[in-house]
């Protein structure tokens, strides 16, 4: 075993404590000073941006780009400022355009910062620079913006200068502590050396008749008294210790044998559990894929059913129009067309063309809706979602699996112009799974029922969807584990138990929200889903 003397320990402890105290003090001081210095730089950046914004108002009003560039060039005397952009608000489109800029000599230009202006009204600090924006206001109207980027090089130089000063003070202080500790060590170590000599003789010669002499130091005197008492009792304990060691050795041998046996049994059990768990994951993945393929089949059937009717009507109308055109061609060749027949032919043509136009338009709308649903289901990219139109597409996609719409209506409640930016694909899958779940489970044996889906904004950054039906509800024995995988009331009747498990994963992991479930048997269900979105203005 590696040993170290008390002399060194004493020095090490004093130096370590002193070092720690100095490091903490210097660190707190340097961090505080650097933070204050950076705050002063942020205030300086904000002041510069306000000055530039005030000066730029006249240039923006008179569209005097040359004057503004000359004014910005005076910033070369300021080493702090790296880049300045002046943006002008277009009076017709109400959008920002690039007006003028300043770039510190030796630095390349930077791209425009249109998208970040609203977030930089208060200075933002990055690794190497400070950014701030300031609106240019004239008669209480924003006519443009000023973007300013300042360097943090001065803050870094200040920090390193502070660290250098602290390092010098740190070394000098440690040197002084070391000298004081050497003086203090002699007072403690001298009586300790005599104690060590006696103890070494007892350990080497096993001469338990030796005793420690009294000491002027209270602590060492107490230790001598205790050590002398211990020597008196050591002889008595030696025999009993030997017997105890023999018993402990036998007990340890038996314990090691039992531990070896149980460890082997535990390894075998863990191996079997891992194999079982791997098989369960494989089965779960296969069932989820089967669920997706079943949904895909239903969607394809819905497309075929919905598109078949308008296409069939269009084909019938075009066939009738072709027959009438053939008859009219024959009469035209024989030069026996009357005015009334020609008028009736034109009327029939117009009527058939109207039928073809309406039905082909309907087919095109259906294909567009199905195309959007398909794109949403295969994409997790945020896009702008107009909720009423989005719900219309969802209802079309689930039409093959819906019950009679007259007896089991689905009512949608949301503001007419509600448009948000979110992941349409996962939201579409959540709604389809909830609706299909109600059709299959909630209304079994019912002659009528109703589904209500409402959308409201919670603040400006969260969308709340409340989904309810008045079906049979969920039994109390599976109410608490409704989102667990393979939990279903249709075991053996086609239910996989993965629908609501998939809904929970989509809401919590993909959409980044939460879902709450409430139900009483024979009183329907209620799902409350909240997830973050970006509200899109209707302007």
UniProtKB/TrEMBL annotation:
Residues 302-535 form the Histidine kinase domain. Pfam families: CHASE8 (PF17152), HAMP (PF00672), HATPase_c (PF02518). Its main location: membrane. Residues 186-239 form the HAMP domain. CDD domains: HAMP, HisKA. It is found in: Membrane. Its EC number is 2.7.13.3. Keywords: ATP-binding, Coiled coil, Kinase, Membrane, Nucleotide-binding, Phosphoprotein, Transferase, Transmembrane, Transmembrane helix. It catalyses: ATP + protein L-histidine = ADP + protein N-phospho-L-histidine. One of its GO terms (cellular component) is membrane. The chain crosses the membrane at residues 9-31, 158-180. PROSITE patterns: HAMP, HIS_KIN. GO terms for molecular function: ATP binding; phosphorelay sensor kinase activity. Residues 234-272 form a coiled coil. PANTHER family: PTHR43065:SF47, SENSOR HISTIDINE KINASE (PTHR43065). This is histidine kinase. It comes from Idiomarina rhizosphaerae. The lineage of its organism: Bacteria, Pseudomonadati, Pseudomonadota, Gammaproteobacteria, Alteromonadales.
């Amino acid at each position: 075993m590696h040993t170290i003397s008390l002399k060194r320990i004493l020095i090490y402890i004093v130096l370590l404590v002193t070092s720690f105290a100095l490091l903490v003090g210097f660190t707190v001081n340097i961090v505080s000073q650097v933070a204050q210095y950076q705050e002063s730089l942020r205030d300086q950046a904000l002041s510069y941006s306000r000055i530039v914004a005030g000066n730029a108002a006249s240039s923006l009003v008179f569209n005097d780009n040359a004057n503004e560039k000359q004014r910005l060039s005076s910033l070369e005397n300021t080493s702090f400022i790296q880049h300045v952009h002046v943006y002008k608000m277009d009076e017709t489109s109400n959008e920002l355009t690039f007006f003028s800029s300043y770039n510190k000599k030796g630095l390349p230009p930077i791209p425009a910062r249109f998208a970040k202006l609203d977030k930089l009204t208060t200075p933002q600090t990055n690794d190497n620079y400070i950014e701030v924006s300031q609106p240019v206001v004239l008669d209480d109207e924003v006519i443009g913006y000023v973007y300013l980027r300042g360097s943090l090089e001065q803050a870094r130089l200040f920090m390193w200068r502070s660290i250098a000063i602290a390092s010098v003070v740190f070394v000098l202080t440690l040197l002084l502590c070391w000298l004081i500790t050497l003086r203090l060590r002699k007072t403690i170590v001298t009586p300790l050396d005599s104690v060590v000599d006696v103890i070494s003789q007892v350990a080497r010669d096993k001469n338990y008749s030796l005793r420690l002499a009294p000491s002027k130091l209270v602590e060492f005197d107490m230790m001598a008294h205790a050590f002398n008492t211990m020597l008196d009792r050591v002889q008595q304990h030696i025999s009993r210790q030997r017997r105890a060691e023999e018993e402990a050795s036998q007990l340890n041998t038996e314990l090691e044998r039992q531990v070896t046996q149980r460890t082997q049994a535990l390894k075998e059990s863990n191996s079997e559990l891992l194999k079982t768990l791997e098989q369960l994951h494989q089965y779960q993945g296969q069932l989820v894929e089967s669920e997706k393929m079943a949904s895909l089949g239903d969607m394809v059937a819905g497309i075929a059913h919905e598109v078949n009717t308008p296409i069939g009507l269009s084909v019938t109308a075009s066939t009738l129009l072709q027959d009438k055109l053939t008859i009219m061609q024959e009469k035209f060749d024989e030069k026996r067309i009357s005015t009334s027949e020609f008028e009736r032919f034109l009327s029939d043509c117009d009527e058939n063309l109207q039928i073809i136009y309406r039905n082909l338009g309907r087919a095109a709308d259906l294909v567009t809706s199905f195309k959007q649903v398909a794109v949403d289901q295969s994409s997790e990219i945020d896009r702008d979602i107009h909720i009423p139109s989005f719900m219309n597409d969802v209802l079309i996609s689930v039409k093959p699996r819906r019950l009679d719409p007259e007896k089991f209506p689905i009512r949608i409640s949301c503001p007419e112009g509600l448009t948000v930016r979110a992941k349409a694909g996962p939201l579409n899958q959540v709604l389809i799974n909830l609706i299909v779940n109600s059709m299959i489970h909630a209304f079994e044996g019912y002659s009528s029922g109703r589904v209500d889906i409402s959308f409201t904004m919670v603040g400006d950054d969260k969308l709340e969807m409340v989904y309810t039906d008045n079906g049979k509800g969920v039994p109390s024995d599976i109410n608490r584990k409704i989102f667990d995988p393979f939990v279903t009331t249709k075991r053996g009747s086609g239910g996989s138990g993965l629908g609501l498990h998939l809904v929970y994963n989509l809401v919590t992991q993909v959409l980044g929200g939460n879902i709450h479930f409430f139900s009483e048997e024979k009183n329907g269900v209620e799902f409350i889903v909240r997830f973050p979105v970006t509200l899109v203005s209707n302007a």
